[in-house]
């Protein structure tokens, strides 16, 4: 989440033309090319949501070591804000969760939310025009996840899938399960990395600056309309340098997109991966996704988008947005969280643990590494030994 630059970007609208999120990036690095490069089979599947978005799913049907025979349970992986299916594969077979699951005999399906690099299509709307971007993570939860999971179940014939989400991929899981009860039997278990529901204690300095302004009910949405969030390289470099001055970490990390995802202040990032991370991230989102998170930071609620009281009444029938009833979720759920996560703070994760039904919440694992941050859950050094071995154990024993 890049809030300072976002403010600056909004204020300078009309003056500065933001560079497209993928400007200057080599478009040849994709989930497909990365996975193929490691010698695994990969399939691409297109799925249309009930509101017309055309999403790309990536599938590693089986590992070259385990082969295609036998019934394989399905693992469904959902990425976070500004990310994509590439998250799970770019670290390679030793540390990429998608390969590790594949080696365990899973049929691995990776989602891509509307608006990201692989899901920028719609039956009737052009991504070049504003109406395409009129969505936020609530829609990912109620449209994208259902369409993708139904497609997986249809194509594979399995009864249920194991859900693994990171960051916004956990938020959308909560949205789905609190809004569409028919899915609860579709998940054998859920494994939520850096879970984001309540956000009042988000420690990102970007949020403390951006939140009060941009987290107001419907701030800017009516003024500027929904738009693609286009990080501007110059602004990112500038604010990256400012941010990292305080955190005293290397410029190499600060001036790239990592800091935008909450990747500062960790000694764990595997620098070998930087070129691949930068080639695939940021993967695009709507500004509304960021506004909705900032509203949570401001209000202290985990609830639907706040349009302001009069439009809320039209949308929801009441003046305040409905809260997500996390207590009602009964999918066996495992949380994995850490002390140095600027987006999923300890206090907010504790609140989530408190509200979840104790019968559903099977475990909440606080990583022993004190400096582990939001994106180390994907790309930290030794992430396999520190985190994924445990996640896989939990999945197999769920
Ligand atoms: C998930 O599906 C498997 C096989 O299809 C079945 O044995 C199992 O009971 C299901 N689990 C849940 C929680 O529904
Ligand atoms: C860092 O990433 C590289 C490239 O995927 C990988 O070979 C290496 O094992 C990783 N290092 C650690 C300590 O996780």
From TrEMBL:
GO terms for molecular function: hydrolase activity, acting on ester bonds. It holds the Pfam family Abhydro_lipase. Residues 33-90 form the Partial AB-hydrolase lipase domain. The keyword Hydrolase applies. Residues 1-18 form the signal peptide. One of its GO terms (biological process) is lipid catabolic process. The active site is at 167 (nucleophile), 341 (charge relay system), 374 (charge relay system). InterPro entries: AB_hydrolase_fold, AB_hydrolase_lipase, Lipase_euk. Keywords: Glycoprotein, Hydrolase, Lipid degradation, Lipid metabolism, Signal. It comes from the Eukaryota. Belongs to the AB hydrolase superfamily. Lipase family. PANTHER family: LYSOSOMAL ACID LIPASE-RELATED. This is Lipase. The lineage of its organism: Eukaryota, Metazoa, Ecdysozoa, Arthropoda, Hexapoda. The gene is LOC108073081.
